[in-house]
Structures
1.
Amino acid sequence: MINKVVANAEQAIKGIQDNMTLMLGGFGLCGIPENAITALLKAKTKGLTIISNNAGVDDFGIGLLLQTHQVKKMISSYVGENAEFERQLLSGELEVDLIPQGTLAERIRAGGAGIPAFYTPAGFGTEVAEGKEVREFDGKMYLMERWLKADFSLVKAWKGDTAGNLIYKGTARNFNPMMATAGKITVAEVEELVPAGTLDPAHIHTPGVYVQRIFEGSNYEKRIEQRTVSQATHQ
């Protein structure tokens, strides 16, 4: 069995060059490839097109890459937590494609499944529909949306094995599994790396066939974007 393990994030991102398209997994700040992002910062790779549901926050996640102006274009769904993103967008420094979240997820899934296009009603009659083919099915109007693919997909899993099989935990399962299928090269960082054959096959979310490189990450912050707590009540 092929051993796909690399020593660290720096080795894992080898081959990522200026002006490439990357997918970065996660939902908000949950399940983001923290170690891989740090390695990209150190590598100073620039002109990147990044496909990710969120753009991180000002001082964490993809927001760090925005601060160093390594990102040329963002293809995202929700970007409301990042003031630097807003500044670069309004000043024209950053190209942005804002996509309805379900459409973004399906475009990524389609890229991994080899489906070049599909039809969806989301966005019909809005700016989202500009320049897109529109067709009627059973009396309802639909937009044609094209697949999304990437040169590299950088994903984060809870546990993985040396053959590249991955298990995600909780909300981290949102975008990571589909992005793992849609990159020419998929890099997985995991919290726990175990020998091949030790994971229960019934619990695997991403089969190792989709993963080319895997490493065990460290020093995860796992930040929360907005912490909400209830006030203690005294009776």
2.
Amino acid sequence: MSLDGMQLAQTDLTLEQFVNEPVGSAIPEPVLAPEVVPIVAPTRIALLLPTRSEGLVHVANAVRAGFMAAWQHEPANIVVNLVETGDVPQDVLIAYQQAAAGADIVVGPLTRSGVTAIVQSHAVVKPTIALAQPEASEAGLSPGLLAMGLSVEDEARQIAALNGSGKSAMKAVAISTGVSWQRRAAAAFVSAWRGMGLQAEAVELPMNGGFIDGNGLLELRNRLQSARPALLFVALDAAQTVQLRLAIGGEVTTYGISQLNPHAREDWATATPLLDLEGVRLLDMPWQLQADHAAVMTYPHLPANPEQRRSTDIERLYALGIDAYRVAHNIALRQTDFTIDGVTGKLTVHFGSGTPRFERTLQPAIYHEGVVRPLDPQ
């Protein structure tokens, strides 16, 4: 039988033999109290991913695989249900509302537009771990939403803090092309750099036939010779940065974000060294850099396709799935302030009263002998 959600163990104990005993007489055998066993319902997590989107199904499956790998390692008392969506914001919003109605915690959406849609609609009614950042104007508006997506802007701000904090006079130039993520990263770096009272200039290089325009590089070289910055921030990929360095040389200290690392960690053993990037510094996640990292060694890696090089973006999203489950697990345990030495970085989380806060500290690295190698944190 049950009582107020508690289950009582049954017993064959009978008290008939004590009916005629005088009050106060000794009871020949002790009476066992019934065993009380609490019934704890499992925490229901809805994993909201765009698996019905032709363009996003591969990245959604990577996040799902990482999330389930972490769940299988530590399932606890958690049930995970996949909620499939497309990539249209309205579709994501409807799926989110349905997921929240039947779950204790929602993990997702995975797209910036999807996160923005649920924030703008004030739809957050359950603890929600978004896997992308909302648009900047919507950030911090939902007390029940923790955004832990991978962010080039956060990487850029971390580079600015590492190199400019405490400095009184240090000029930097941020270089990008017209690609959206590059513009966002460069703008975030410049804003953070100027926020510390330092000088920063943004330069956007034109593209021509898939390469940086040669005239733009010549103009940049002349500009740098005149400005003499102490640091270059390159919001570029590895191939573009090679082209940049061949044009302007390597005299100025150069920093970049994770897109400067073009290979999965295991593939560097057979990759052609990028000697033109020697000395360039960057940030990336432990999953891509540190084979001996405790968490990296804990979880299985995605199976390799012998006919295809691993995608660094897919690897990073798989790692995001792992850390998303670990954060959700802590929230399921009613943790409000905690840190995790995660596979995507060191995570600091506040989720409870007040505005949720999330910070990811990435791993510094450097090109040495043409290969990306981790550095000791500064």
3.
Amino acid sequence: MAKLDPEGRAGDLPADRSACEDLIGAELIEEIGALYEGKDPAHDLTHALRVCRTAMAIAEAEGADPTIVALAALLHDAASGPKNRDRSEEADERVLETVEPLLKRWGYPDVVIEGVLRAVEVHSYSKGIDPATLEARVLQDADRLDAIGAIGIARVFMTGGALGRPLYNPDDPFCRGREADDGEWNLDHFFSKLLKLEEGMHTPTGKRLATRRGEVLRRYLTDLEEEISKGI
């Protein structure tokens, strides 16, 4: 499992799949993978595997139940359908309706299933729910960490391109004189959501990792502004 030093740096992280397979098993991961068919590339199985890997590292550092955390991370976006601007309650219900019978069929005890359902139910940023359990806090942190840093930059532009959003508002790219509207302009998503995620982390480990990834976002925006304004 990944180790985190006191500064929150991850060392010798395993491949995305292997950390989860060691605890959950390859066969279950393959079955979960089928639930992600049709998802957009920013919310596909590779996203779930990255979240699982990060969540397991945070769980180890914070003392959370690794099985609940790993299962919740793998299943948090499963069967929810393609990404759109507003996550629907129906999509969330489809995920929960899928998770419980799957875990029962695989023989997980009720206490694990309940913990997974709680974590999955409250993980979404758009719901604005403060999670009550440590495992749910770990999942929220890990999912939001995947939205920032280098991978977060890649995901936001992948999603924006799929939805046909223009890159930025040519009159005010960095939202200095207007409210951010990420339904209209892709770069606005940094200001409406991504730059806010760092302050919303729950665990000490999540906060340390978010600080480092937040620096990546800010450095990118500084470089982007220079290229837009100077053109050289």
